[in-house]
Design goal:
Elements (H helix, E strand, L loop, with lengths): L1 E2 L7 E3 L5 H4 L2 E3 L14 E2 L26 E2 L12 E7 L8 E6 L4 E5 L9 E2 L13 E3 L8 E3 L1 E2 L6 E3 L7 E7 L2 E5 L5 E5 L3 E4 L15 H6 L56 E3 L6
Antiparallel strand pairs: 1-2, 2-3, 4-5, 6-7, 6-9, 7-8, 10-17, 11-14, 11-17, 12-13, 14-15, 15-16, 16-18
């Protein structure tokens, strides 16, 4: 295998030794500094294959996948004004971003989301006041300068970070006014946050994850993602698009989901959702 064709060295292009490898690429893991996780910071999760507590499938096309252990990542960093040092950057099989193993002065260790550019030996701090605007530091939005990229943002003060947590994502601080801070999210949405909500400085690590080409269906099965079958290929009893002879069209005024609802380009967000009041400008429409 050899590294080829991307801005960073985290994505490698596979040699075309087979049809499945010809157009595929993978993660080189060159930014990983520690292979084995901290055993005390991992747990085993029961697989539910997309089913809820009643056994009904609520998420389609889930099941199987390689065996893995869940890393206990602290999204809140509640140890205020205690300096910590980055010990290692690790891989997390449950998320696209990297995680950082940090250690406090009393030798306690925790996992946190790694910011892009973070490396072992870096110092960081979580505070309710001001701090240097360097990757990894966590502080309230009111103390973050306009134009600064942030991630792992709290939706409500005192709760753990809930937004901007996937690989390569970031939110930009737009303005501050009247106890609120406006953030522009990766989707283009502009959202209002309480100035007391805390966020981590920088962009989420592993931004080249989006450039990976999986190449074959088997690699998706390793990830626990099962095949997606077209509705047109089904029988009428299984899908509104099913039936017909040969390669027939949908045959409906608009495409539908398997449950008979509108599909393709229809807004799915609940108009009565309480958090709608915080959206200043909606996300951009995908082309």
């Amino acid at each position: 295998m050899y590294t080829k064709g991307y801005n960073s060295m985290t994505v490698k292009q596979h040699k075309p030794t087979s049809a499945g490898r010809r157009l595929s690429s993978g993660d080189s893991f060159s930014d990983i500094t520690k292979k084995q996780p901290e055993k005390k910071l991992t747990i085993a999760l029961h697989k539910n294959a997309g089913r809820n507590n009643q056994g009904r499938i609520t998420v389609q096309h889930r099941g199987g996948g390689a065996k893995r252990r869940y890393r206990l990542v602290d999204m809140e960093l509640t140890r205020i004004d205690e300096p910590a040092m980055v010990v290692a950057i690790e891989y997390d099989p449950y998320r696209t971003a990297r995680i950082a193993l940090i250690e406090y002065a009393n030798k306690d260790r925790i996992y946190m989301l790694a910011a892009d550019g973070m490396k072992p030996g870096d110092s960081l701090i979580s505070t309710q006041g001001t701090a240097d605007l360097k990757p990894g530091n966590r502080l309230p939005l009111k103390h973050i300068a306009t134009g600064t990229p942030v991630h792992n943002v709290e939706m409500f003060p005192g709760r753990k970070g809930a937004m901007v947590r996937s690989a390569g994502s970031k939110a930009i601080v737009m303005s501050q006014d009247g106890g609120c801070v406006l953030l522009k999210l990766s989707s283009g949405e502009v959202r209002k946050f309480d100035e007391r909500c805390r966020a981590s400085i920088g962009m989420v690590s592993n931004p080249d994850w989006i450039n990976i080409r999986w190449g074959k269906a088997g690699r998706m099965r390793y990830r626990g993602i099962r095949p997606t079958v077209r509705g047109k290929a089904m029988n009428p009893i299984d899908h509104p698009h099913g039936g017909g002879e040969g390669n027939t069209p949908v045959g409906l005024p608009y495409p539908k989901t398997a449950q008979g609802k509108h599909a393709l380009g229809v807004k799915t967000r609940n108009g009565k959702k309480k958090s709608n009041q915080y959206i200043v400008s909606p996300r951009k429409k995908r082309k």
